[in-house]
Structure formats: C-alpha cells, structure tokens
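Residues determine shape. We examine one folded chain.
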Amino acid sequence: MAAIGKIRSWGPWLVGIIGLALFGFIATDFTRSCETSSNQARQQVGEVMGNRISIQDYQNNLEEYKLVYKVLQDAYRQQANREIGEPEEEVLRDNVWNSYIQYSIIEEEAEKLGLGVTNAEMENVLRTPTHPALSSLPLMPAFMDQQTGAFDYNNVNQYKALLQQYAPGQVDEFNRYWAVVEKLLRQQLLISKYYGLLQACMLSNGASAEAAFKGRTVESDIVLASLAYSSINDNDVTISDQDLTAKYNEQREQYRWDNETRDVKYAVCRIVPSQADIDAINSAMASAAQQLRADSMPLAEVLSSCRTLIPYQENMPYNEAGLKAISNDLFAAVDSLANGAVSAPVAYTVRTDGREFNMRAVAKLLRKYQGTDSIGYKLVGVPGNSIEDASRRADSILAVLRGGQAFDTLATNMGQGSGGTQWFTANQYQGQDDIPPYYISLFHAVHDATMNQPAKLELSDRVLVYQVVERKNPVTLYDVAIVSNELKFSNDTYNRAYNEFSTYLSACQNAQDFEAKAAEGGYMVQEQKNLESTAHVIGDVNPYTRQAMLPNTREAVKWVYNDAEEGSISRIFDNNASLGLLMAVCVTKVHPAGYLDQKSVEDLLRADVMKDKKAEKLISQLAGATTVAAAQAKGAIVDTIQHITFSAPTNVKGYREIGLSGAVAGTELGHEAGRVIKGNNGIYLFNVISRHQTDSTAFAGIQRQEEQRLINTATGLLQKSPYGRPYTDILDVLIQKANVKDLRYQF
C-alpha cells in the first residue's frame, strides 16, 4: 500500500512526462509531415483543378513525345539517331504541357457529360483509312498503303511482325511508340466528341444567315474623302496625365494579366577569339596539311587526331552541291586540286540555328571522277533462323530472280510490299556526322553493283537481296577528306572576358548603373517587358527559325522568379559560354497578377490618345461638312474605293479600316455617310456610288448552307487557333476556373 501511495504521489510528474513524450512524438510526426509536404511541393511542376502535376509524370509524358519524335525521324531516314536539340525540346515541352492541361480539363468536362471513348470505337477508327482523326497522328510511312497513300491498320501488324523476325531488339521501342499513338488517338476522339456536342448545341436562324450572306456577297464602291492622322505633327499635340489616366480607365480590361510578369534588362558580353587564338588555329591547319601530304599514317587516324568536324566516309563522295553547302570557297579549292593534292587553308563561315561560326579547313582530294549521284534499287529482307540459314535462302532467291521472276512479284509474294524502287542520293549522306553502319554497307553494295543483276548482302544482323535498276544524274564526284575546325576563343581569352564582365557587375549598385556602366565596358543592354515564368528564354526569338538569339537562358528565368526582387542584379550566367556569350539580368519592374499599372502601358496609351487628339483636330477642321464635296473643299483627299464588303476590312492606301466597312454597309446606295467616321488611321466621309451582289444565287436556295456556315464559324472560335494561342477561347474560361499553375521554370 505504501508503494501504491508513493506512485500516486508521482501522478502529476508522470502526467507531465507522458505529456512531454506525446508532444515530442506529435511534433516529430508533424515535422516529418511538413518535410514530406515540402518534398512533394519541390517535385511539383504545376497544378490544374487542384490536382498536382509531379515532375515525374510530366517527364514521363515528355519522354513519350520524344520517343515518337525519334521513331518518326528514323522512319523517314532523316538525320537518323540525331539528338533532339534544345529548341526542339522546348517545343516538345510546350506541346506536352498544353496537351496535358487541355486534355485534363476536357476529360473532366466530358466525364460530367457522360462522354467517353471505347476500345471498339478505337478499333473502328483504326480500320477506317479515311477517318479524319488519323490525319493528325504521328504515323510512320510504312503504315501507308503504297497505292492510295491512306493509313492501313494491317500494315502496323505486318511491320511489327517484320521487327520480331529481323530486329527483335526494336520491338519494345515500337510497342511503346504505338501505345503513345493509341493514347493520342483516344484523347483526340474524346476532344472531338466534346467539341461535337458543343457544336450540336449551337443554332442559327434565317435572319442572321441572310445578313451574313449579304455581308459577304454584297460589294459597294464609294467616293471617299479622308484626312490622315499622319497629316498632323505629333509635336503639335498636347497630351496630359489626365488624358492618359482616362484612356487607361477606358481600356483597363485590355491590360488584365492572369499571371505575374516582370520587366527585365539584360547585358550580354560577347567573347571573340584573340589574335593568339587565330594564330593557333592557323598553325593547326598547317600541321594538318603537312600530315595529309606525308601519308605517314592512315587517313582515319589523321582526321581523328586533328578532330575534324566534317566526317569522312570512304567511297561516299561529294557532289558539287554538297561541297558548296559547306562553303563555296572550299569547293573552289577542292575543284582546283589534282588527285592526291592538299589545299591551302580555307576560311569560311557556317550558319547554324541562326548563329555564325568561323571555320578553317584544309582538304585532300583522293579522287575526282565522273559518276552518278542517284542510284535506284529494289530490296527485300531474307528471313531465316540464323544468318547462315538466311544466306542459303538468299541464294535460292537469287536463283529465282536470275531465272526471270520479276523483283516486284517476289517482294509481294514475300509479304514485303510491292518492291518499289528506292533511291540512294548524295544528299542523303553529305554532311551527316552519324550514318548507321547498315546504310553505309548498303550504299557501298549498290554503288558497286552491276545494273539489273540481283545480288546478296550479308550483314551482322540480317541478309538482304537487292538489285540496282537505275542510275541517273551524271555529275562530277569528289572523294575528299576534309580537316575542318572552328575558330574558338581560348581559356585565357574567356577568363579575361569573364573577369572584365564581373568587374562591370560589381560596379553596378542599381538598375541605373546596370545600363549606364554597360556602355563603358562595351556591353549591349536590352530590355524585355512582361517576361512570364512560362518563358523558356530571355531575349529575342528569330521569327523565321523560331530559334532563340540567346539559348540556354532557363536558369536566368528561374532566377528572375525564384530569387530576384525589383531592382535585383543577377550573377553571371555562363550557360552559353561555349557560344561566346555571357549574360547578366536586372529586374526593373514586377507586375503582380491582375492589371498592368498605367506606367507599364503608357506607350500604348499615348499612341491611342494621340489618335484621339488628332481625330478631334481633323473633325474640327471638317466642322459643318456633311458631304464629300464639302470635305474636299476643307482639305480632304478624295479617292474612289471599290469592292467593299461588310465582312472584310476596307483597304485605304494600304491601311485596314474595319469600322469603315460597317459604315458603308449601313448607308443606302446614292447617299452620303452624313457624319464623319473615325478610323484607325484617319477620319472619313463617303458617298456610296455603286452596289451589287457578287453571288447571283438566291438566298432561299442556300439558307441551310449559310446557317451551317455560321455554326461552323462559331465552332471555329472553340477550336485551337493556328496563330500560336495555346488554348481555345472556351478553354480560356475553363482554365481560369481550373486555377492552372505552371511551375516548370523551377526545373
């Protein structure tokens, strides 16, 4: 009893100790939970409709797209096995993201509506060669019917069977590729069903259809009196802050942004080779020329030791076009050589992905001769349990062909298509730096073959029977070995440029210094407004090649959004050091999600206010004028404009005026406009002098077609725009509701 009493006396202490233990357990569990949540957040690449998108899921989808890209690249035998470049991968990344977001949203909407795609529907589409859904799928050319060009599902199974027999190592890759194709088809069919249902909900009516028909087919000619805004000097117009504020309030909704953006300025340091670097490459070219002349070591070893950038394939000659594609000067040097001679060093420039590279080269002409650079041949693969077995079967096939059976008939009987002619041309290998051994062996075989004589080619993994049936395009061919190196800056040159650029940044205390001190160091500073976190690059993009002028700036974008504040200046980003480019960034303005402030859009506001002010001056100049003649008397320029329709902008001296088209359509024939029309580029008065209908078809006979045209036009607003918008109009609304977050910049 005494012991029990003693234990009872410890009660408060025990409760306290147990409480502390429980608190420690809960705190530890809470800490672990926070760590888990934090780790999950760090692995989150985005969010849609409250569902997190992990970097692993995103990466898996990206790898699927890259697999399809690679398979199609190999199937078309274009740049076989070439690695996907950074610009191409950026396009794939965007496609993966946009497709994932679009499909996730539509899938949820479709589920609410009870829409889905069954396996039977998939099978039916795949077995319908003309189904429109097939036209946008990434299908291999081997799947197409050679006669009609249409997709044939049977060819898919035949292709897989051939892989299982001749290239079993490629079967797994093909299965993964085809699984992606079916996945894309299923998604496309569901999206089509959803849009189809929306289209079925749309109605038109006779009055709207008739108005649209007349707006498209009724043309008017007018006499136009105009006064252009450009007739007034900008300096003669006074714009106040109140004017800008009023215009901003009027247009505020145009400046709404759903995501935060940031204005940045970036300085670029361009590193160029020094004179010492130029002397070094000239010396290397002289040494290479000496080795090529000496013939003291195998040619392949010489080229390897000189690290040439232009590969040499024995007996795979260049034609004139191939050499000129490298350099006109290099072609001239090679063409002037005798067999066995070596050229003097040649300087030339190569443009790749919108950038220039300075090169130096020497060439040794092994043989110059007349030949053909296009060889037509027919080919079949020979099945067998082993290479020896396939070789014996090939001998039997050769006996059949030499006995008179047509090659096409043989190919058909073997289930290998119709045996059509394939072509080897110089363009297929010239300039290629990684030609598969299979193609090299096959080229050498057909190059040396006798016309119309079937022959056998044994490779390490297959046996082929081929027959050359045509040679064309006689040209001069050049069997030439070229040592080509890029003129690069040395480490010493790089370090000197880096240190100087670093000194410049150290002297910058704010955004004003960042720009002012750049000129002292000879650096170029440019500005990029409204940079979004979804941007892949900082800097301009070539409008023709879609290549970034400054590639590999993803780390800079990440810094702008992860680490920077307004006024922050970055470290040196050397991701483009190999291209001779160093970059630093300064964040000059942060625009939170919502509305851009007035200062950020002042240039746009000023331009619109300028138009308004000029319009007021010109309208006052025409005060009291209600006819073309009266306007002309007050200085307006008069001209005749023809073929004006309601549905298209009116062309006035090269400028498009949308409002003028509507005003003309609303004015009766023979009447004046009666009031001044304010346009985008000037003010106008007009008189309608002619009106006629270009389509003599009676509306009553085509009313249904016109109503359907209106529905199709409305449906077009739901479909993906061809002008680069990532989402459809209806999806813009759904995306806002889905609260999409794009955090890809963090990875």
